Structure formats: C-alpha cells, structure tokens
Inverse folding.
C-alpha cells in the first residue's frame, strides 16, 4: 500500500475515533507543549540578554576599558570580587596613552559614574539616579538621541558647565506634564540646567534604563561620581567595524599592560569589556537551560509514547478481524505493519503539531503576564515535529509488528 | 446439465487418479486446484487434533463445487488451506499450476490477492468504508492506481447490481446487499477461484436464494466457484458435491447424483 493511502486511512481512522485519538495524542501534545514553551522562553531570554540588556549597556563594536567588569551576570564569586578590589583603579592619566593607541576613525569617551546619586528639585521628592560624567561623544557612541532639547555643546564639554541631559524616568519623576528644558535639577546641592531629554532606552527584566543623568565630564558632579581624585570608571571606545575593534583591543591591551607595568606572564588587572564577554556566563547557563528544556519534556514524551503504544495494542486487538479480512484480501505483513505504523505516527505528529501551537501560545502568554520574554525558535518546532514522528514510530513498532504477524485464520475467527 | 453428468463424473474420477499419482509434478493446466494427500494437524489444549487426514481433491477450471460435511469434519480447515490462509502440515497443494504448500506468508498473501476471492458467512466488510472502498481493497494491495481501482470496483459492483449503492456504508445496506458487495470485492481482482464459506449462513431463505442466483450466474459465466456449506439445499445448487467426514473425503459426486441420492435412488 502506498504511503499516501496509508496516511489517508490513518486520518480516516483518527476522524472516526475523535475522542480516543485525542486522549492518545495528549501525552505527546503535553510533552511538545512544554518543549516549545521552555525553549521559547530560554531563547527569548537569551535574545533579550543579547539585544536588550547587554546590548544597551554595551553598544555594538564598542569596548570599555575598566578595572573590572561592569556587567556581571551571576558568575562572580566573592574571591573574584576581592581580587577586583585589589586592582589599581583606572586613572585620568591612563586615558592619554589609550587614546594614542586608537586608530583615527575610533570614537572614545572617558566616563565616571555612580549608580546612586540623589537628585532633587526645589519642589520634587529626591530620587536616586545613575549619574554619568562624560563627553558629548558618549551620545554618539551610544547612538543616544534626544526627544527634546539638545546634548552638550563642545564649549559646555570643555568648560564643565552645569548642564544635564536626563533620562525619561527622571523627566517623568520631576517634570511630569512640564517642559523640563531650562528647568533646574539639583545634583549634590548644585543646580544644573536640564538641556535635553534622552530617548527611552527601554528596560530589561523589570529594570529601567531611563533612570540616568549625564553631565559634562569636568562638571562638578565629577567629584560625586568618583570621590577619589583622578579616578575614573571607564574609557569607552567604538570602532567602525568588528575587525578594527579586535585589532584595537589588542593594541589597547598592550598599552594598558605597560601602563600597569605588568610583567609577561602576569594576568591582566583590567578588562576590555564587550557585549560578548559580558554574555559569556549567560551563554553557559543557557546551555543548561536548553538542556533542561529538552530533557524535562522528554519525560512527558516517554509517557506519551507508552500511551500510544497501549492504545495501538488495544486498536490491534479491536481490529483483529479487520486485519484478518485485509490479509485474506492480499495484505502482506508489511502492508499491515505500515498501516499501524503510519496510524501511530500520524497520531503522534498530530499531537506534536497541536503541542507546537499550544506551546507557542503558552510562551506568548507567559511573556505577556510576566517580564520573561519569549521567542519561538524554528529549530524547536522542527525538533518537536521530528520528536513527535519518532515517538509515533517507536511506540507503533511493537503493536504494528504484532498485528502484521497475526495468523489470518485466527484473526478472521475473532469477534 | 443432467444428461452428460454421469459419464463426466466417471472420467473425472479416472483423471483425478492420474493427477494424484504424479507426486511432485505440476498438474495439467486445466486443473485449478490439485491437492495430494494434504493433512493438517494442530495442538489444542495439549492434544493433537488431526483436522485433515489426507485429502486428494482436484478441481477443474469452471467447476462449481460444494464442500459439505458435519461440524468437525475438517471442511473449514480444508477451505482455509484451499484459500491459502493456512498451509498443510504435509502433502502438496497446487493452485493454478503453482505449488503453494511451501510458500512464505507474504507470497501466500499475493496468491490470495491474485487467485482467490473470498466470500464469508459474516460478509466481513470493513464497517467504516463505503461499498466502493470495500470493493477497492484487493486492488489497493495489488498496487493498482486509484483511478483504475475506482473504475474496476464500480464495474464489479455493477456486476452484482449494486451500482447505485456504491457510496453506502455496510450498515446502510441489507444483508443480501452486503453479501453482494462482498461478492463484488471477491470478483474485482478476477480470481481463479471464488471461495465462499457458508455464504448464506446469515441470510433468510429468500435472500439466500437471491445470493445463490448470483453464484449460479457467475458459475455459468465460467467462474470457478467453491462453496463450503452444511445446508444440503445450498449444496444442491452446485454441480459437484464433495462430502468430508473425519478429515477425509467421504464422497465426491456431481450435484445431480447427490440430488438423486437424496431422493432415495442412488447409493
């Protein structure tokens, strides 16, 4: 019997036994649902990590020279922290040798920052903000535009004027329904004039990226972001291409090693942080998450396979006479085998297909009601359907071979 | 039909002896079925049941044979062997010049598909399939294309006057109609023999007559028909009656002789 006929026959059988077929495919369906949902959420999280979280902290083709990594996703032990604390800080005088090593097309900006600076207005409640002292190139490197006002002028940059560009959250907190441009925002008891509101940088995992103020590098805020004289947090460097960035990073590493007077063989006591270096740990835990996302539903799929095998055994017993009739009309062993195998496989693929739809819906629902993102990966859909097919084949082999080996005389006599 | 039957049966007996003596050699083309000393035994509850104890039977092309016998006489076993559903424990079975007694399962399936058309007492139609689909089934296993199948199945249904019931399911058909669908299914592959097992066992007498007329018609068109029955009235339609008793052939005569014997003139 050609495969196409066998599939039609299987579909017909499934159609006439809807309820039974539904329960048969339930196991596979649930297994695949969770496979798709878990993988979607893991994939969504990793996409989120890469594009939104780390991508916003560290721009494309950008690296930051720091004494220790800024983005620490779960992999920092206490011992590592103590080692970080012993490292020399990055100093203002380090900037010149770094910049000297950069190609002319690279953009760079020094940065001094503090995550907990209190901002106030005369009327508003104080709010803790991320404060940055940097130059106007910062906006260019971050590709950060303004929704109203402007960024620093070169003069303001050079003079360290009392001006700030504020994030959307800061604007909403202090200047709700009011045009903030030209208004006063007090940082460390000094009045700064708001000259611009930055575009929203979005949020990741419930953390907003809009809770910041940016002031010129040499403005008095500098004394608050790093109280120790001459200490800065980072030098940001943006290269036009990935290849140039790799080469530049090698040069900057050499410069930093000589600035720090490191002997060959001594480990770097600084980092050149990129988005991929920040993500290295996440990439590792993602492997485990994906593994869990595949292994746990596999248990459901095993149960599903057992259910299908049982139902197929019952079907063979119920249809013994039909098998006898088919054999008497000339069905060979392989015809009967194919009929039942195709039936179990069709059932299972059906279950898997419904599972894909349910899993995608579940992932989207979770994404909608929680901060967890979801994105359905094509490979997981292909995997699910392949798994569905193999579950059907594996579960169907034994019942189908039993059916095919039935003695036609005995089968015809059965009720 | 009646006048040449007596001498014919004599010559047949003679020929049959010739056929059965030639052990191992393929019989003449004219013989559709030749069995040489076939036996069949099986174990049942630790006891060996000898259902057939050496049956020599030869059936010529175009014959219409009834196999009779009380229950336990081995007629069902013989019919399973003739129908290639089973293989003999010993002895030879030649079907249409092919030695089938030693064939594998799959080879037997193909022989059943091409050479034998079954008609069962309980019709054995697939309940979820329409009449047309039921008749198509042997053609499916013969690997014939869908359009060709439909054409041939439809013409087989026409042969049994059921053309207008093609798309009905078995439960929408009367008993007689079901059996006619089964006959159409048996005929659709143009088999060498039509093998009917108590074809009227589940039908009332009027419908039985109707079905017997169908067989009669087919036999007169040259179809070889072998019918297993325990009803003398039904067997009386056949032109030759083989009676089995305790696993051996007790008598083998033309129907006319059988009929006259029942009237108290023969034996």
């Amino acid at each position: 019997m050609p495969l196409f006929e066998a599939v039609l026959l299987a579909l017909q059988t499934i159609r006439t036994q809807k309820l039974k077929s539904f329960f048969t495919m339930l196991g596979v369906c649930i297994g695949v649902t969770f496979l798709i949902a878990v993988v979607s959420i893991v994939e969504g999280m990793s996409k989120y990590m890469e594009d939104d979280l780390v991508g916003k902290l560290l721009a494309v083709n950008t690296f930051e020279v720091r004494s220790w990594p800024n983005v620490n996703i779960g992999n920092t032990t206490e011992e590592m922290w103590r080692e970080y604390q012993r490292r020399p800080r990055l100093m203002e005088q380090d900037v010149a040798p770094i910049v000297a090593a950069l190609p002319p097309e690279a953009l760079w900006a020094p940065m001094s920052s503090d995550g907990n600076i209190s901002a106030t207005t005369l009327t508003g409640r104080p709010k803790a903000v991320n404060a940055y002292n940097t130059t106007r190139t910062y906006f260019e490197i971050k590709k950060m535009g303004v929704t109203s006002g402007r960024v620093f002028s070169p003069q303001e940059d050079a003079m360290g004027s009392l001006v700030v560009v504020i994030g959307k959250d800061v604007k909403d907190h202090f200047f709700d329904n009011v045009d903030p441009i030209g208004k006063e925002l007090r940082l460390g008891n000094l009045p700064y004039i708001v000259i611009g509101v930055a575009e929203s940088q979005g949020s990741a995992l419930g953390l907003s990226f809009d809770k910041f103020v940016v002031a010129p590098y040499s403005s008095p805020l500098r004394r608050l972001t790093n109280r120790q004289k001459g200490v800065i947090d980072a030098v940001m460097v943006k290269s036009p291409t990935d290849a140039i960035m790799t080469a530049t990073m090698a040069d900057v590493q050499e410069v930093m090693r000589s600035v720090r007077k490191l002997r060959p063989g001594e480990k770097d006591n600084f980092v050149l942080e990129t988005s991929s270096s920040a993500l290295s740990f996440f990439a590792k835990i993602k492997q485990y998450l994906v593994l869990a996302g595949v292994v746990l539903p596999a248990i459901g799929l095993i149960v599903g396979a057992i259910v299908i095998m049982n139902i197929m055994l019952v079907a063979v017993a119920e249809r013994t006479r039909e098998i006898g009739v088919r054999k008497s009309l000339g069905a060979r062993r392989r015809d009967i085998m194919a009929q039942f195998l195709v039936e179990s496989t069709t059932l299972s693929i059906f279950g898997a297909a419904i599972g894909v739809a349910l899993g995608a819906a579940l992932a989207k629902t979770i994404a909608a009601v929680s901060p967890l993102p979801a994105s359905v990966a094509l490979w997981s859909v292909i995997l699910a359907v392949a798994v569905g097919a193999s579950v059907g084949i594996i579960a169907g082999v034994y019942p189908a071979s039993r059916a095919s080996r039935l003695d036609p005389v005995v089968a015809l006599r059965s009720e | 039909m009646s006048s040449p039957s007596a001498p014919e049966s004599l010559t047949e007996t003679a020929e049959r002896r010739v056929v059965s003596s030639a052990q191992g050699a393929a019989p003449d083309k004219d013989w559709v079925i030749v069995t040489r000393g076939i036996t069949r035994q099986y174990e049942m509850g630790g006891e060996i049941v000898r259902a057939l104890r050496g049956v020599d039977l030869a059936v010529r092309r175009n014959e219409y044979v009834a196999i009779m016998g009380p229950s336990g006489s081995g007629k069902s076993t013989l019919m399973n062997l003739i129908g290639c559903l089973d293989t003999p424990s010993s002895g030879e079975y030649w079907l249409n010049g092919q030695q089938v007694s030693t064939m594998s399962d799959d080879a037997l399936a193909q022989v059943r598909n091409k050479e034998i058309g079954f008609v069962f007492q309980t019709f054995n139609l697939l309940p979820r399939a329409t009449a047309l689909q039921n008749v198509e089934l042997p053609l499916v296993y013969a690997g014939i294309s869908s359009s060709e199948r439909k054409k041939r199945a439809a013409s087989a249904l026409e042969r049994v006057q059921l053309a207008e019931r093609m798309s009905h399911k078995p439960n929408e058909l009367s008993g007689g109609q079901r059996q006619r669908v089964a006959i159409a299914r048996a005929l659709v592959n143009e088999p060498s023999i039509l093998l009917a097992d108590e074809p009227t066992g589940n039908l009332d007498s009027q419908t039985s007559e109707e079905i017997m007329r169908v067989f009669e018609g087919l036999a007169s068109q040259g179809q070889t028909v072998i019918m297993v029955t325990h009803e003398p009235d039904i067997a009386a339609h056949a032109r030759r009656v083989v009676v089995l008793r305790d696993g051996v052939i007790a008598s083998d005569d033309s129907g006319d002789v059988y009929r006259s014997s029942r009237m108290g003139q023969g034996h």
